[in-house]
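Many introductory courses stop at the sequence. We go one step further.
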Amino acid sequence: MQKASRINEIYQLVDPEEPISRADPRYVDLSPVRGDEDFARHILRRVRNSRPGQYHCHLVTGHRGCGKSTELLSLKAALERERFLVAYVDAHETLDIADVEYLDVLIAVITGWTELAREHELPVSQKLVKDIEDWFAETELIKLHSEEGKMSAAGGAELKAEIPFLARLFMNVRSQLRSGDLVRKEVRQKIERRLSDFLDRTNLLLDQIGVLARQRSYAGLVTIVDNLEKIPLKLLDAQSGLTNHAAIFVEHAEALKALHSHLIYTVPVTLLNDRNLGMAYPDLDMLPMVKIITPDGSPYPPGIELLEQVIRQRVDVEAVFSDPNALKELIRMSGGVLRDLFRLILFATDYAPEGGKIEAGHIQRAIRKLIREYDLLIHEEDLELLKKILHDPHPPASNRLARLMYNRLVLPYQNLERWVAVHPAARESPTFQKADLETS
């Protein structure tokens, strides 16, 4: 296993955005310092033990960079070992993440399944393909006499390409949802006016893919939709407090759960505070931060040691750091956020000379850079709640707490119960420090 032993090698081997599987030699099991929760194992058991004809729907949440994608890729591998056919949909790659509605998610899922069926050469029936094509033509989402339409209607040898045609059809609709605002709005309206018909045809297609998959000894279909937690938070209605996150996942929960596949959706951490989410979805798991402190703010050595192991799997610490103990200061400032820990190391690397080592001064400059980032996220109206959290790690749910968690100013942890803490970079920011002094 390659480790960075020189400054320039850190850039290739410490990547904040790279998810890895449990089979990767760099993988470190962090569940013992995350409340001993293993949501991948829980979901696998729920899916495996579902009754025939029933589909398990599970939500997963947690901050960006906390390791969800790594755990979901591990779940995908475990499901495939048990002969489930898994469609992994990366919302960040397939959707315009800045403007997402629930219909976009449905289109992304069914597009993912048509692409997977094409890869596995599953022969969906000509009749179903024609029915879906006609429906899209009726709703004016495609032109009946398009080149694809001619190909589908031609019959004969061309009908070997039923799934490639469907894949192109749904990919075309998905691309329209990534187009300009007017096109996107028109496509959504056309589908929503006939949502029941759309879901019926989608499920007929999923049912047939499921039958064909079982004929090849697959146990069933599982859909994993990752990176939906990256949808930017927007307030849609100031009077009711409705956000776009709640509009997608709570108000349209029935549509998202209607697909004939086991479903795992990642959702924004803001929804942890939505009382209606538990009514809409019985199963929600949060991947908390790595616990490097206790609720009273004391250091938690087991978490610190495991995060040090994460870095040592990638970096020859003694070769790169002039003082290997300095790594603990970067771990402390990360708050247990893997993404921030990796970024801090990259920041320090930026300041270090290429032929030298990371010194104490480089580490302090990296920390100040992260503090500046978090300082810009703090609004004046946030300060009162942030100060309260310093003394009470169990604040009541509120829209403001949801926003603070979304921006990682407040981090969730878990023992036997959940609790929160202010991110160290926010706590040491000039804005927070000034406000704290003024009230002390």
